[in-house]
Design a protein that fits this description.
4 copies of one chain form a homotetramer.
Chain A (H helix, E strand, L loop, with lengths): L7 H6 L2 H21 L9 H9 L5 H11 L2 H13 L12 H37 L4 E6 L2 E7 H26 L1 E2 L13 H10 L3 E2 L10 H27 L7 E2 L19 H21 L11 H30 L1 E2 L1 H8 L8 H10 L4 H16 L5 H7 L1 H4 L4 H6 L3 H4 L3 H9 L2
Parallel strand pairs in A: 3-4
Antiparallel strand pairs in A: 1-2, 5-6
Helix pairs in contact in A: 2-3, 2-6, 2-8, 4-5, 6-7, 6-11, 7-9, 7-19, 9-10, 9-11, 10-11, 13-14
Amino acid sequence: MIQRYSRPALRELWSDAQRFATWLEVELAVCVAMEEEPASPVPPGTAAKIRTAAAGRIDADRILEIEQRTRHDVIAFLTHVEELAGADARWLHLGMTSSDVLDTSLAILLVRASDEIAGSLEKLRAALERRAQEHRATPLIGRSHGVHAEPTTLGAVFAGLHAEIVRNQVRWARTRCEIAVGKIAGAVGTYAHLSPALETRALARLGLGPETVATQIVARDRHAVFFNALALIAGSIERIALQVRHWQRTEVGEAEEPFGKGQKGSSAMPHKKNPILSENLTGLARLVRSYAAASLENIALWHERDISHSSVERVIAPDATALVDFMADRAAGLIDGLLVHPERMRQNLELTRGLVFSEGLMLALVKTGLERQRAYEIVQRNALAAREGGPSFAERIEQDAEVTTRLRIEEVRACFDLEHQLRHVGAIVDRGLRR
Amino acid sequence: MIQRYSRPALRELWSDAQRFATWLEVELAVCVAMEEEPASPVPPGTAAKIRTAAAGRIDADRILEIEQRTRHDVIAFLTHVEELAGADARWLHLGMTSSDVLDTSLAILLVRASDEIAGSLEKLRAALERRAQEHRATPLIGRSHGVHAEPTTLGAVFAGLHAEIVRNQVRWARTRCEIAVGKIAGAVGTYAHLSPALETRALARLGLGPETVATQIVARDRHAVFFNALALIAGSIERIALQVRHWQRTEVGEAEEPFGKGQKGSSAMPHKKNPILSENLTGLARLVRSYAAASLENIALWHERDISHSSVERVIAPDATALVDFMADRAAGLIDGLLVHPERMRQNLELTRGLVFSEGLMLALVKTGLERQRAYEIVQRNALAAREGGPSFAERIEQDAEVTTRLRIEEVRACFDLEHQLRHVGAIVDRGLRR
Amino acid sequence: MIQRYSRPALRELWSDAQRFATWLEVELAVCVAMEEEPASPVPPGTAAKIRTAAAGRIDADRILEIEQRTRHDVIAFLTHVEELAGADARWLHLGMTSSDVLDTSLAILLVRASDEIAGSLEKLRAALERRAQEHRATPLIGRSHGVHAEPTTLGAVFAGLHAEIVRNQVRWARTRCEIAVGKIAGAVGTYAHLSPALETRALARLGLGPETVATQIVARDRHAVFFNALALIAGSIERIALQVRHWQRTEVGEAEEPFGKGQKGSSAMPHKKNPILSENLTGLARLVRSYAAASLENIALWHERDISHSSVERVIAPDATALVDFMADRAAGLIDGLLVHPERMRQNLELTRGLVFSEGLMLALVKTGLERQRAYEIVQRNALAAREGGPSFAERIEQDAEVTTRLRIEEVRACFDLEHQLRHVGAIVDRGLRR
Amino acid sequence: MIQRYSRPALRELWSDAQRFATWLEVELAVCVAMEEEPASPVPPGTAAKIRTAAAGRIDADRILEIEQRTRHDVIAFLTHVEELAGADARWLHLGMTSSDVLDTSLAILLVRASDEIAGSLEKLRAALERRAQEHRATPLIGRSHGVHAEPTTLGAVFAGLHAEIVRNQVRWARTRCEIAVGKIAGAVGTYAHLSPALETRALARLGLGPETVATQIVARDRHAVFFNALALIAGSIERIALQVRHWQRTEVGEAEEPFGKGQKGSSAMPHKKNPILSENLTGLARLVRSYAAASLENIALWHERDISHSSVERVIAPDATALVDFMADRAAGLIDGLLVHPERMRQNLELTRGLVFSEGLMLALVKTGLERQRAYEIVQRNALAAREGGPSFAERIEQDAEVTTRLRIEEVRACFDLEHQLRHVGAIVDRGLRR
């Protein structure tokens, strides 16, 4: 868990205290379910008594101390609960295996983390929506390969990012279902000393469904889905961050990260304002991707389970969820506070003095009956010459006999009409903001 | 595309011929949609004429030859179509950018590949179902950490693998929707010389929906979802393969891969029969995982697109789909033909002379009122001693005063009842086979 | 930094306190180098005075507090030093950029971590050497594909693992050189307000060499080499762990992990002894692999640097080094304490009743002038029959007319001579233990 | 093997024909070594006779046909050689296992691929050297975070990339040694029917050394080293490519890829010239990285080997070597032909009207006795104001009383002296070009 890159809610969620509290939650849910069984050996009220006895007294350090001896964390935990609750504790864990507790608890924690992330994603989505509406008609040069292509609007860019976040929200809601699955099925998933009915009741109390066919554990394809969905979200946020980093380049200057009062960009160069939040998001995406790769190796375990997945998950469950939650939250703030420079966007749009309208001209020529290849060559010739300096592309075109014999001057000028080029952008923005 | 690890259908799908045919399909679909526009400059019947002119005459080598000069594949293609169809070809690609063709074609090919894979997955699912029914009651020792745990049945194992494949089928159906999306929206997705309505009609003809907000291309989070879903399927097949490899170990010997007449296991050792199909699947899963990692780096492109994703996809789109299709198909055959040795399973189950029933005994002691820790110690003491040889675990238990003062001999023996332990397995198998 | 999977030395190394202490070390080394310059503006003794003023008073929390405002960690640090040392602090960081401090400090810490890891690796190597000598002649069946192949010895296995660790030691020593490189070259590596000579002197004091051509930072291919070397070591340790896991399978039982007094294998099944240390190493290798992948994405930064590598390194520098150090240390203990069962090895060797000698027999037949294909078929026929039960392979061979017409009974029996087969193993072990 | 992204030499190297030819080379080298043994059963001249019989007649299709039946590639190959060479062929493969042939052949092919790559790398290095010399004094604004920092020269940038390629050359030479290792040691590496001396002689003939302790195969940490070294080279080339992509941005325009006569940048926009070669290199780096990840999973195989590594290597050995060779070759051409625009570099350098000299001014103020924090604030205040427009940074500074009370006007102006800032760059370039 990385303090610097996590919100307090996530740090709390993955604390030792929270983990042991969740284990107890699971043990007690099963205990209650057992009490309800007909002819149960477990006396009614047992779970309630243990809950009272343990309330606020679970001592993480004591558990770790016991674990030194038993080298088994769940047994250490149960031993500690027995210290607190006495003889009643014998009714805990009856017929259960450690993974019944661990995997069910992991599901609970992942679901909670999932909900936190959903909240941060929603903030990001809302920020993108607001900025898309605000700039729906702010002209911006569209770029492919980093090179000016044709005009678009800033609103369309935000709307595109918005649509991608919405796709991630839909995927994320599904991922929650994949992971909201526990397991109270015993050592190899056969309910040798339990029953499917009891499992269903205990898990329902915890907000979870049962694994279809458990081994000793819940199947790890579910977790791989989860961590890969995180990597996808991280990739989409990286796309947003990359956008900002490009805008803030000195030569581009179309938008920049908010820069705090008292903030310093560089220890050496007092003039610097750097897109460090975005660069940071870029790096974090690499980390989350790497965690996803590790999770894929956890699917194929030996027989009814080996425990190799465990050390991986101890690291990546907290780290990957905390990072993505942090990323979404930070990206929301970044988009919200982004300083936009429409006038610079306009300047850049005009930088190539009309080159970016070359396609319309070529099409106008084709519509006069010219072959596409020939039309292309005429326009490319003028465009590449204009890039080198001298008369602008528009000026050259208006002088080119091959053009003027085919198109009237008004027809030529219509090709350079920005309004016309952007006539569909409003509809695009609306579509991108639909949920 | 790896000849050795692909079915002919997939090799054909990703051939140059198929690619160019699909490009033409896309260009013509747009051309038809344009013909239908009111006051369209494109004469009715244009697409039909081009189709006729090009039918069976698209020459991949000629296109590559032209590309040497233009260094642009789509332009080379269009030039070639112009060679074949003459002046009519001018009406192709009107207002379109290369990516309108490329990304829409890629979607068509990925959807087709997706359907092939779905077919192979279904074969695998059916094989697992059949074997699960066949062996629903065949006892097998469950193993955690590679060490005997408690009994289960072979049917339960197959049912668990079946449930995982079904989960993958559900995910795969969704993934198809993510990828069944094209784009006829021009250079930066603004429909500068096109319209959303035209795009919708053209794509519908191709079985695709439109990208919500395109840039120059369809957003790459969709493709990352696709390749990651493939990695998940590969991981689940790897789990199946790993299972078989363990069963076929000399000391285990519970099942083995079909061994063909005339087959040779080793050039040096005539006695060998090796689980090479399964090992092969294990290796292929590594490859598919690696492709997924590359796809995640393709999401964050520059502005309205850079083309860095292209080389990656040229490799992984054919390779990853062909491999997973091959894997599912091979795994289906493997499961179908798997030689199962129930008698060896029974022998192994009895190998520890009753140790695997230790949990039931501990629980029986707890139910007499003994503390869990104490009960554990009594049973562990006898179990660890029995592992070293001498009297079996059952024999030792029946002699242990701490046990016999608490449990009657029939109660002790009931703990060693295999039937009882497996009483829920039928229900588990049924649940695992539900779809 | 994962408490559970790290030794105290590494946790201490990557603490906030250590980080800030190292930053100060770097600033002071440069300050001293400046004092030594002819006509330096920096008064002699400045560094010494600052060192005295700051000794034991660097307050990590205070620095983080200042960073809240400046959003720049090095400036926050310098501000704090100024709080402690007053006006003298103005002479720190003169002409330097933050990365001069950060990258040079990182190099120092990575070198120290590297030395810790080298120590743990040496423990592992020594353990493997000891066990290889101990068991140089202990017969063990060699297995390919998990299936019995031909005999080898346990010593040869350990010697092979030893040779691999030695290879890693050689690589690791080289990796140390790659990373023992700092940089005091200013904002874009041009020494605009510094000089190459000053850098060389300052870095020499810190045990580092200068980057050949720095940008704002040390080039990140060096760090990628470092993290990939860690992934390699992790992979080699995983190979050791996998070996142990297979040996400890119930059906194999040839060796097992040390099992502590009071240790419990399972919360449900008192009879269990599981290879959890080895499984844990397997999982950790996945993590280290994933960190290496992230580090490769850090090489290509924008122009003279972007800061996207930083968040990645904040996580993986501590985590990857601590994990590999822990892995090597744990593996050393595991090999050292491994319980070996030579008698079980012998039993397993004889499990196939002679099948594993099939190659020698085939070769003997070839040497009588028989075609290889024919010899193979004769031996395979008998071997596959023997696998099904009935007479052993040796018995069948001695009855097979196609054999007995070509080989005398003594010649046949010589093929089953274990001593002969193992005649080169001593030499192999010696070669594997050479350094 | 990807036709589009490979040079003919590499495609030829990894052809079926070349593979089988190499297998024969290995078999014959061992056969010769056997002939030389005292009292060898193998008649002198056997290898020579087989070589003559097989010369130019190895039929890859026939081998694949036989493999259909045997499901074993080496046996199929040997059967085919027997078809060609008759009874002499019985002396081939004596005491060998398939992996003796396969792994030794793989080493030969990887070494050859390695030499091709070394050649392409050297071309790249030479191109960087030439351009570094050419532009050693061409001023260029250094950028961190994409934002103008301080001046450097284009030559320094090339020299830095050169130094990184030289580091890769050194690593690559070492990697060749890691991989130039074969193995003629039999089924489990014990030389049961061979000898270490024979292996050494046979391998020497092939230009290889023997694996220290082989299992059935050469240890896979060696191959992981190889593929990770490729990923590193790919990462370093990606850095070069990224540099070019940034230079070619419309707003930056400092350098651009060569653009062929007849080349077309976009099917839609005739004005486009895009850095597609560099973007392509960026994508290919992702692929090579992914192959490296897969290779790391190949290290930990079961016991004396499982064959899961094989399918991975069948794909990544040709693909990764061919891609990196292609990348280095393409990058060499790219650097060689790069169009550089020094005048645009100068314009960009002046874009911020002096801001990039802020550090020198701050340092000059510090040297007058001002506190660093205070000096920073004065300079930052003027710099941030100048960014907003109005008087330039230099003009503002010359008017700032807090500055002018401390520095004379000449002292202020000296801070804006480009020559002075670049005084060390010549030495940097020389250092970067040293080998």
